[in-house]
Write a structure and sequence with these properties.
Structural class of chain B: mainly beta
Helix content of chain B: under 10%
Largest sheet of chain A: 7 strands, mixed
Strand content of chain A: over 45%
Strand content of chain B: over 45%
Radius of gyration of chain A: 14 Å
Structural class of chain A: mainly beta
Number of helices of chain A: 1
Radius of gyration of chain B: 13 Å
Distance between the termini of chain B: 36 Å
Shape of chain B: globular
Number of strands of chain B: 11
Oligomer: heterodimer
Order of helices and strands of chain B: EEEEEEEEEEE
Order of helices and strands of chain A: EEEEEEEEEHEE
Helix content of chain A: under 10%
Largest sheet of chain B: 6 strands, mixed
Number of helices of chain B: 0
Largest interface: A-B, 28 and 26 residues
Amino acid sequence: DAGVIQSPRHEVTEMGQEVTLRCKPISGHDYLFWYRQTMMRGLELLIYFNNNVPIDDSGMPEDRFSAKMPNASFSTLKIQPSEPRDSAVYFCASSLGGAVSGANVLTFGAGSRLTVL
Amino acid sequence: SQQGEEDPQALSIQEGENATMNCSYKTSINNLQWYRQNSGRGLVHLILIRSNEREKHSGRLRVTLDTSKKSSSLLITASRAADTASYFCATARGYNDMRFGAGTRLTVKP
């Protein structure tokens, strides 16, 4: 397996533009997580899915952020409109759920570095 | 919100020395995990310790867990320059909502 695949790796955009980040989880994993990492706030859990259904989106900062998982092999995180304070590295991670395996061990993608000018 | 907090924020040692990092957390947990992040990369899982375990070893890694103090420590023995990275603890209130601390930045000087 190629691991968790994220695209794009780098995105530079202007304030007000729509940004879409993509993630392909590991085949067979039933959980998918989106995290945001900044120097100031560290690694924040934004949202996670189980079997394509959003379970907890309490970490999504505001209505400008939305996430979808239309099928088991694809998820998107969208920011519309983007703002400079959204600049961060966004990570996607997937796992085989804790209730099945006894613990949720995450496999992370390489991240998408977003810069909003 | 973050669940775990690592201490120290930064640690610099010489190759061959041992490195100890600590993690404190706030709520009861099912398990605690340690991850490593090299600069510009995603996090990589290192080791997991369950709430009914007190100590666990994996190669040069030793993890302890004290649930009464809500704390854990990660010891890296005989450190190498390649161990230079940030180390994070992660906990879940249930099985699934994994939340990370701010991390300890370890520098191992050759």
